[in-house]
Each structure stands twice: as C-alpha cells, then as structure tokens.
Amino acid sequence: MVAINILGCITLSLWTGLSYSFAPRPTIQRMKLNFQLSAQNAEDDGIIPPLFHSRQSISRADLFEYSSRIVGLSLILPGAAHAKCTDIESCREEGERKIEADLKLNPIMRLSDGVNYRVLRPSALPGPKVKNGSSIELIYSISTASGQYMYSKGFGFEKVNFGGKLQSDLGLDSMRVVVGEHNVPVGIESALIGMGRGERRRVELPPGVGFETSNWQPSPTSRRGITQIEQYKKKLVGFGSQPAFPAETVWDIEVLGIRN
C-alpha cells in the first residue's frame, strides 16, 4: 500500500468544495456533468458505492461529499501516489493536467450541425457500425444542460410493469430506431453514426436539431417526465416575463443491437 501526503489530499478536497461554492453558473453546470461521469465510472468499476446513479439532481453537498470520498480513496489505492499535491495551486495544476490528458484520450467530437459528443464507453464487440438506414436497439437518458434528470428508457431510472410488479427498467426496456426516419431527433441520429454495439456516448443536443425535428419523440411516459418536457417547451418559446432561450439537452445513449 502506497503512503501519500494526507495534508495534500485534504487540501484537494477543500479546494474542490470551495471552487464549486464560488464558481460561476456555467462552470458549476460543467462540474456537475464531470462529477456525474466520474461517479458513474467509479461505480461501474466497483470502487465506490452508487452516489449519483439514481439521483435526479445534484447539490453542492453531494459534490463536496463525492470529492471527499474520492480523496479518501486516494489514501488507500496503490495507484494514488502520482496524485500528490501540497497546496491549492499544485492541486489545481494536477487537476488541469488530468483533464487535459482525459481530453486527449477521449476528445469532444464536434459535428457540423452543432452537436457535441464524447464516448463514455467504446464498443468492445465485433460487428457492424451504425450508418444511415440502420435499424438499431438503444437505451437513452435525457437531462437538462444543468444536469437535471428529465426521463429515460432502459437506464434503470424508470419503472416498468414486469410480472405484475413495478421494477427498474434496467435490462427490461429499450427503443427501436431506424436512423434517418427521425424516430429520435436529427442531432441524435448524427451522433449515432459510427457507433458499435455496446458503445455509450454523451451528446450535447442543441434545440435546432433537437426534439422538434422528431415531433417530440421519444416522448416520456412518467408523470415527472411529462412535466419536465412541458417545462422545456416553455423555456424554448418563453413564458411570462422569461424570454425564449435556446436550451440544450444532454443525452446518454447506448446501442444494444444493430441491423444494416
């Protein structure tokens, strides 16, 4: 077991919490998405118990707790020795280096229609790739740009009736899509091109290639989802004293099967 600088790790945890407390709103939104992804990866690897997997929103306390638990892990994990830092500035620089390295390994892809995506999990399975006209089976989860959960299918966040009982839809529900027929927004169809079976991507979807291009499909089935999509529609066109705002949505999509 590798011993590391405990004081430095505590400083890192405090810096994370303070940075979030005083960060401007766009930075806070980006931090939320980054923490969600980090938490999901750690949970998938079995390193930490689920923190955000079924959360519908994330508070400042959640982020501080998560950062503290990650720092706590660095005290006992063998590979943590390279994460030493002795003051706030060195911790910040270490964090920036990690972000830069991650972006080099897994860059943000920018498409011509304004869609951005990152690969959360590459395909490790042989077989065809998604192309225009492909019939695919997929699961998805949709949130606002600020990280607020809207609705999903097949990710385990919704309930389905199975055997006369309401159960998590993880592994029990999915959606069939023919790329090019606009069963999903045009921007999502663009992001699907080139995906393999088992691959997962996170897509930032601008409204110009969003829900209106698929006649607001896929539609939610839960009461919460219906409320969320109605609020999103109001945000796009404006309501009361609020002007129209071109709000993006964020989609996690995973391809389960492909037929070309």
* Number of distinct helices: 6
Give me the count of strands: 9
- Report Rg: 20 Å
Distance between termini? 50 Å
Could you describe the largest sheet, including whether it forms a barrel?
7 strands, antiparallel
String of helices and strands: HHHHEEEEEEEHEHE
Helix content: 25-40%
What does this structure look like?
With about 260 residues, this protein is α+β, with helices and mostly antiparallel strands. It contains six helices and nine strands. The protein has helices at about 5-20, 25-45, 60-75, 90-105, 185-190, 225-235, and strands at about 110, 115-120, 135-145, 150-155, 160, 165-170, 175-180, 200-205, 250-260. The strands form two sheets. Strands 1, 2, 3, 4, 7, 8 and 9 form a seven-stranded antiparallel sheet that branches. A hairpin with a 4-residue loop joins strand 3 (about 135-145) and strand 4. Helix 1 packs antiparallel against helix 3 (about 60-75). The chain is globular. About 25% of the residues are buried.
How are the SSEs placed, and which strands pair?
Elements (H helix, E strand, L loop, with lengths): L5 H17 L2 H20 L15 H15 L13 H18 L3 E2 L5 E6 L13 E10 L4 E5 L5 E4 L2 E4 L6 E4 L7 H7 L7 E6 L17 H15 L11 E11 L1
Antiparallel strand pairs: 1-2, 2-8, 3-4, 3-7, 3-9, 5-6, 8-9
Helix pairs in contact: 1-3
